[in-house]
TrEMBL record:
Region Disordered: start-end pairs: 1-22, 761-785
Biased composition (Basic and acidic residues): 1-16
Keywords, alphabetical: Membrane, Transmembrane, Transmembrane helix
Presence of the UniProt keyword Transmembrane helix in the record: yes
Protein name: Integral membrane protein
Source organism: Streptomyces violaceolatus
Listed SUPFAM superfamilies: alpha/beta-Hydrolases
Highest taxon, organism lineage: Bacteria
Transmembrane region(s): 121-141, 186-205, 249-270, 282-303, 324-341, 361-380, 392-414, 434-458, 501-524, 551-568
Length: 785
């Protein structure tokens, strides 16, 4: 009886082995299972409300009816859009935009083999840059709450009278009330930046539990002997739980330390005056010394070795994660008590020392970016890649933009609050001088950007004119339509703008670095805003400085208002949330390695999902799986394929369309999607075919070297499918660009070829020699693989 059951089980598996699976993965912006499967009746077969695999209702039990799927695959759709555009709380992620950008820069390092120390130094510099962004954001909150509100406005009678809610903090209006002393005002206002730090900690912890807690499959690491082995194939690549927890503790402590220094430093400065109370002076020095020790501890935690990817590291530094923030929180409580101690003769006048603080942060960020550029250049020079963006300097350039974005957000908040508090513009000293200088460089930076955009527009128009002859040549024998030709040529020319993005980023980043350095020098040497600093010089220089100052203040305020408006709209409007979700789809693909407060990495949930689904299918059926990815879905498909066991990887075929694997990821992230990594993926999966259009601004060819290139990339698809009206298309066919690849007959043809190649049992033999493998097509023709 037992043997009969074994024979029955073997026969059932042999029957199921004839069933093929097509696993569809959508791209940015998301879609619905109904649209992906082209059927209004769908059912979720595995997953939850965040990410799940769907089938058509009639295919729900396909495994039990293999005879019904002899000539066609079972279609499944993996829907992951809710990972990036879910409920309204995702609008809060806009606050984390600078953190996301600096985290992206971490993964942009050039490819290098055998330069372990240099690679670690690259990651260390970016972790330090991420730490400065946390300090900058909390310092901006301290500038608003402590300096502008509690110190300046509450200490000025005219300002306090305009804002009656500050009356109990004003010495004049409250007639010397208990909260009216400067130290107690600062201690009370410290609740705002401390709450911001707590919010960042909470968001990181909540998303950490939802994303980083998803464990990938247990498997042995691939052999590291091959230098082309992609890092994305390491078992622990998508499990950065330990590092995120450690960095979260360090950044939380850094934020609380910033608040503590903002309260204690003014009090300690007052206590150091001649004739001041010796006990308070001693206590102030001891407290500041303890804060300095805490800062050293935070820096040491950040400087520790980063990610562990070769193995799935499930251990946590629990003592560090808990004790460091709690110790700093205790220091903050002591700072509040020390600052709030009674000092009857203490009054608030002028500004707090924000200019020195923001100047120090800006200087450190500039030095980190320069050092990062040197390290990136050394890595790129050791293994040059002609396709790498900005010759390997993409990471430093993006890190510079992250720092600039953090500065703009900080300056915008401070400038708008200062304008709101000081209605007349004469009663308050306003924000630190450096923030005004930084706002003043925005107009010249915009001029540079607009000039580059104008040059790109002119080049695009010239290219569009040149493309008209090519468009007509692609449709010989058809009556010409000048309007139709212009539209197609313009779509092709516009699609090439993606390839010029590195030049735009490089010039913008370089201009930002130079103008930011000029603003820092101007603020520290003059101690005055640009308009006042230029007073007495040439009339042209004085007018330009005043114009830049006024226009910069208006622009940075407008940017802040638009930012808040967009966030509020995204909180209430699902369509606006989906728009923001597109940004997160691209920006949060990578794990949090440089900043723990960045938006969570959805791939740490999506890649294990896809890996588990592919592995379980190949084990149950013996193979025959085509993973079909569009746009960002092709990146997820490639990442999941890398995570499979080598034996399962050889049973999977990969079909990508509209894919940014080489055009965007290969150029901007050469260490992980460079030519070597993509070539190894092509060799390890059973077969890979890639479809693209010349009108697609995102997708493009994979560009593998040698014979592997045409084996993967099909010639560009026609777009539109027909130039004019035909019997099959009596109405004009649309220009599809990046969408509707499955509407092209070539898609079904290539999928049929992949399925014909995959056989039950062992995969088809690979040709590793000079000629590409020949794949029998469904229609009897032959294709390369």
């Amino acid at each position: 009886m037992k043997k009969a059951q074994e024979r029955s089980g073997t026969g059932e598996r042999d029957a199921r082995s004839g069933t093929a699976l097509e696993l569809l993965v959508h791209g940015v912006g998301g879609t619905t299972p109904t649209e992906m499967l082209d059927d209004p009746r769908t059912v979720r077969i595995t997953g939850d409300h965040v990410a799940a695999v769907f089938r058509r209702t009639e295919d729900a039990d396909a495994e039990s009816r293999p005879e019904d799927y002899r000539g066609r695959p079972v279609p499944e759709a993996y829907v992951w859009c809710n990972l990036t555009s879910g409920n309204g709380t995702r609008a809060l992620w806009l606050l984390l935009l600078p953190f996301m950008v600096v985290n992206i820069a971490h993964w942009m390092r050039p490819a290098a083999h055998g330069r372990i120390r240099t690679v670690r130094l690259y990651g260390l510099l970016l972790r330090l840059a991420g730490l400065t962004l946390t300090v900058l954001l909390v310092a901006a909150a301290c500038e608003v709450a402590l300096d502008l509100v509690a110190w300046q406005c509450a200490g000025t009678r005219a300002c306090a009278e305009r804002h009656s809610w500050l009356g109990f903090l004003s010495p004049a209006l409250s007639e010397g009330g208990w909260w009216s002393t400067p130290g107690r005002r600062l201690a009370l206002a410290a609740a705002v930046p401390a709450a911001l730090t707590g919010l960042l900690w909470y968001l990181s912890l909540r998303t950490w539990r939802a994303y980083e807690s998803q464990q990938p499959m247990d498997r042995e690491a691939d052999s590291e002997d091959d230098p082309r082995r992609a890092a994305l194939s390491r078992p622990g690549f998508w499990y950065g739980r330990r590092l995120v927890a450690r960095l979260r503790a360090a950044h939380t402590a850094a934020g609380l330390l910033t608040v503590a220094v903002g309260v204690a430093a003014p009090a300690a400065r007052f206590d150091r005056r001649p004739g001041g109370p010796a006990p308070l002076d001693t206590l102030g020095w001891a407290l500041l010394g303890a804060m300095a020790a805490g800062a050293v501890a935070v820096a040491a935690v950040v400087c520790r070795r980063g990610r562990s990817e070769r193995l799935i590291d499930r251990t946590l530094d629990e003592h560090l994660v808990r004790r460091l923030p709690l110790a700093v929180l205790l220091l903050l409580v002591l700072a509040l008590l020390y600052g709030g101690w009674s000092r009857p003769d203490w009054t608030s006048d002028g500004r707090l020392s924000g200019n020195t603080a923001f100047g120090g942060i800006a200087l450190v960020q500039g030095l980190l970016v320069v050092a990062l550029a040197v390290v990136a250049h050394l890595l790129h020079r050791s293994r040059p890649d002609v396709r790498a963006a900005i010759r390997g300097l993409g990471g430093p350039a993006v890190a510079m933009l992250a720092c600039a974005l953090g500065g703009v957000m900080s300056g915008g908040v401070a400038q708008r609050v200062a304008d709101w508090m000081d209605g007349t513009g004469t009663s308050l000293d306003g924000p630190p001088v450096l923030l005004t200088w930084q706002a003043s460089v925005i107009p010249p930076l915009l001029v540079v950007v607009l000039l580059m955009c104008a040059a790109l527009a002119l080049h695009t128009l010239r290219l569009a004119r040149a493309e008209r002859d090519a468009v007509e040549g692609d449709h010989p024998g058809e009556a010409g339509d000048p309007g139709r030709t212009r539209r197609i040529a313009l779509a092709r020319a516009m699609a090439t703008l993606t390839d010029r993005a590195p030049l735009l980023v490089a010039i913008t980043s370089a201009a930002t670095l130079l103008l930011g350095a000029g603003a820092l020098v101007g603020a520290l040497t003059t101690g005055e805003v640009p308009g006042e600093a230029a007073r007495g010089t040439y009339a042209v220089a004085q007018g330009a400085a005043q114009t830049a100052q006024d226009l910069g203040s208006w622009l940075i305020g407008l940017g802040f208002i638009l930012f808040v408006t967009w966030g509020r709209r995204a909180y209430k409007d699902a369509s606006a949330r989906r728009t923001i979700g597109v940004l997160w789809d691209v920006g949060t693909f990578w794990p949090r390695a440089a900043h723990p407060f960045a938006p969570p990495c959805y791939a740490e949930r999506a890649v294990p999902d896809l890996t588990w689904r592919m592995a379980t299918w190949t084990r149950a059926t013996g193979g025959r799986l085509v993973i079909s990815g569009h746009s960002q879905g092709s990146v997820l498909a490639a990442a999941a394929s890398w995570q499979l066991e080598p034996s399962a990887r050889r049973r999977v075929a990969l079909l990508t369309y509209g894919s940014p694997l080489e055009r965007l990821y290969g150029r901007w992230f050469p260490a992980h999607f460079g030519p070597d990594a993509l070539a190894s993926l092509h060799e390890e999966v059973d077969c890979w075919r890639n479809l693209y259009r010349r009108t697609d601004p995102i997708g493009g060819p994979v560009r593998l070297p040698g014979d592997a290139g045409p084996a993967v990339d099909r010639a560009p698809l026609k777009d539109p499918l027909t130039y004019g009206r035909t019997e099959l298309h009596p109405l004009p066919a649309p220009i599809l660009g990046h969408s509707d690849y499955q509407a092209d007959p070539v898609f079904a043809e290539e999928r049929g070829r992949l399925l014909a190649r995959l056989r039950p049992g062992l995969p088809a033999p690979r040709h590793t020699g000079g000629a590409a493998a020949t794949v029998p097509a469904a229609d009897g023709t032959a294709g390369d693989c």
